[in-house]
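Appendix B, record 7
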Amino acid sequence: MLRTRLNDALKSAMKAKDELAVSTLRLTLAALKDRDIAARTKGDTNGIGEDDILGLLGTMIKQRREAIAHYEQGGRPELAKREAEEIDVIEGFLPKQLSDEEIQSVVKEMIAEVGAGGLKEMGRVMAALRERYSGRMDFAKASAIVKRQLG
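Structure tokens (predicted):
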């Protein structure tokens, strides 16, 4: 289970005195705990599931990529490097990412499966992709491909 892997990795990083991994994993586990608390208010006593955790990790990576762009624009390469190192730590918990070619193939199959015929049905295609490929696909790339194929 991903939740257990994250906790075990934190313990290992603490023993190894790996400050970057410790801080990144603590931030990740804090975000996970926040999501669990939000899920409890909605009646889910078990917290969020694996797919939601993968989505959380994907969101954290996306936030760091945006921060890297801002730091580079602001002339702060040391902070951009730190964010990139955090991305490496987080990506270690994600399944293998689909390549651009694989994304194109999957998008084509999903459009056919959903029966989408135009841009109005892009949301249905993206929802189906998120359901099946959470944590394994860059949805910004997928969105552009879906838009191009439906448009």
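Remarks on this record: The longest helix spans residues 50-73. The radius of gyration is 18 Å.
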